Amino acid sequence: MMGGKGGGNPFPPSAPAERRAVAWRNHPDMNRPIAFAGFLALAGIAPSWTCPITVSTTPAGIEVALDTLPPRATPWSSEVAPGSHGLSLRSSGWIALDTTVDCLDQPLFVELVPARTADWTDSVKKARKDSLSLARREYARRTLSQAGSDLPAALEKLGQSVKLDSGTTATLAVLPFQPIGSATPEAASVASETAVLHLSQDARWTLVERERFQSVLQEQALWGSGATTSELEIGRALEARYLLSGTVAVDGLRRLVALRLLDATTGRIVATSAARVDGPEMDAALSTALGEKLGVSGAIFRSISVPGWGQFWTDHPVRGSFWMLSSAGLAGALAWSVLDWAEKDNTSEDFKNRDATTFRDGESPESWLRRANQAIDARNNASRRNLLLGSALAGTWLLNVADAAWCGHASARATRQRYFAVSPRIEPDALGLRLSLSLGGSHP
To answer: pLDDT: is 152 or 233 the higher one?
Structure first.
């Protein structure tokens, strides 16, 4: 055992740890930093310098592990020894992430932005789609439990919920109805077409034209995403004040149509209604209505029967009034002219036959002959007038028919711009003839 000043053990084992540490620090022959750190470790005393670290993620709440410690949900803070440390992310639904951070003598803030795994994204999309489908079925079930049997009445109920100032209209976009259950897309298309057909005759609404609707759908690619907000985005893109959406379910030959009117600016559901309609009857009625609206033959036939009727039918009342009044005036003038000509013709025939009623007492032969020539001239003038009025009436009638054809063409073009399904087709199948409607003018 060594002893004496400067030799031997300056801090006997029986001395307290604090005293031993002081003796070691003051010993002239030792490497003080290394010895001090090592002695503190042996003595169980922690070093006084640490590095604060804070870990966060976007979004928060993801478990991240530091070195070999158990994972903790972010954000969290801790103090670690200076040096390099490993961070690892192994949370379900997130792509694994490993990184190394260096923590020295300054506080360290680490923010991680992990990405979702493809499996998680696909599962969420499927769950959202299933949830939306379930919500639609539940909505249809609740709404249709009190459904009426008249689709126009259901649409009228929606219209009554909108308060408008006198003489004003509201812009309305009718979204393609969605089939649920065993309903086919064709049945949903027929229902939406029928709704548009009735709404286009309601003075409260200004419908968004089909060309504008299609353009927005193609540019924005909004519909069909499965997100409820897409309806609002469509409404804002179309600059529509209200949106009408619907679902169609099938119960035998009956179609259950659930309607929902949405405020496109606030997203609030303004009103709901529903109707139970006969499927074949709806198909036939829509085929007839669209056939008349989309062709000029209906307008021509009506204007042939009654001038101006075709114009009224194609929503051109000013033109219809003009042709109706013109034709009626010419027809009245022609009728009077024919009656006047008949009277003058009888008089001229009496003069030709030298009827006794044509002679006057004391009249000279020259005076009688002059009156006879005047009667014949009057009859001839009336005949020419009949021809002129008849030609004018025939010309007016032909121009009226031509104008009705033009109005029918214009109405058909406007209808094609307004309606979603603008290609009604009658096709043979095993049961006979089948009505086929397509969205955007292309056959399904």
So the answer is: 152
DSSP H or E stretch at residue 63: strand 63-66
User: Looking at the DSSP assignment, which residues form a beta bridge with residue 86?
Assistant: 100
Q: What are phi and psi of 396, to 5 degrees?
A: -65, -40
Distance (Å, whole) CA 202 – CA 156: 9
Q: Which fold has domain 124-281?
A: Rossmann fold (3.40.50)
Asked if the domains 51-112 and 124-281 are classified in one and the same CATH topology, the answer is no
pTM for this predicted structure: 0.39
Region of 259 (left: φ > 0; alpha: ψ -120 to 50; beta: rest) is beta
E strand spans, 94-183 = 97-103, 108-112, 170-174, 178-179
CATH code of the domain occupying 51-112: 2.60.40.1120
Angstrom distance (rounded) from CA 363 to CA 370: 11
Q: Which helix (H) or strand (E) element contains residue 276? A: strand 269-278
Please list, in sequence order, all residues whose beta carbon lies within 8 angstroms of the beta carbon of residue 46, skipping any fewer than 6 positions away. Answer: 40
For the chain, domain boundaries: 10-45, 51-112, 124-281, 297-436
Question: Tokens for 11?
Answer: 């801090």
For residues 113 and 60, the answer to whether their CB atoms sit within 8 Å is: no
* Res. 409: pLDDT tops 70: yes
Q: What is the mean pLDDT of residues 29-53?
A: 54
